[in-house]
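Try this one yourself first.
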């Protein structure tokens, strides 16, 4: 997902996003590094916190 790109565009830190989404720091870290998958609810809350449509988090990615 494009979370890091959108954080930079919006001028938001990972900590602020984590707090807005309500995920413990160790879980957020695992999700950001790809060791744990994002849940649908997490992705929805991220899009709300960033003020963007969910699709924008996946733009540029091809699906099988």
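Now uncover the answer:
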């Amino acid at each position: 997902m494009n979370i890091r790109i959108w954080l930079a565009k919006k001028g938001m830190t990972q900590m602020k996003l984590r707090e807005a989404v309500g995920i413990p720091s160790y879980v957020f870290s695992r999700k950001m590094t790809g060791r744990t998958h994002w849940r649908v609810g997490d992705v929805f809350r991220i899009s709300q916190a960033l003020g963007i449509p969910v699709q924008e988090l996946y733009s540029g990615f091809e699906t099988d």
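Discussion: The first helix runs from residue 3 to 10. The chain has five helices and no strands.
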